[in-house]
Amino acid sequence: MFFSTSLYVVRLFHREPCSIQRELMRRLAGKRSLWDDTDQELIDLYDHLAEICRKAKNHGGTPSLAQWITATKHPLSSLNFLNDQQVPIHVLTQFRTRVASKFS
Predict the structure, then answer these.
(1) Predicted confidence (pLDDT) per residue in 46-101, tens digit
(2) Where are the alpha helices (DSSP H) in the chain?
(3) How far apart are the C-alpha atoms of 7 and 69, rounded to whole Å?
(4) pTM over 0.90
(5) Containing H/E element for 71?
(6) Do the beta carbons of residue 68 and residue 75 sit within 8 Å?
(7) Are 24 and 85 in contact (CB under 8 A)?
């Protein structure tokens, strides 16, 4: 309860260019990216935020201070994870294979 409430408050003061979910969809469609991160960093951050929010949502434990700070850096994305608004699995798989083919 406190976790999601704190994210709503932080969202009032800190704005992301767009959510990480929307950024993945934009990059896969070949549109101009709004984030400065590379594709691999974006995938790593997506997985990390998903794990933090899954932990907070399922009451599997309290997120650590470092995890809470990461979630508050990306409040819109974290709230999307908490509200089950994730990237469709086939889109995420396509993006991962495209990134993996770049590094091969």
Answers:
(1) 999 998 888 888 876 778 889 889 989 999 999 999 888 888 888 889 989 988 88
(2) 2-13, 20-28, 39-57, 65-73, 75-82, 89-103
(3) 10
(4) no
(5) helix 65-73
(6) no
(7) no
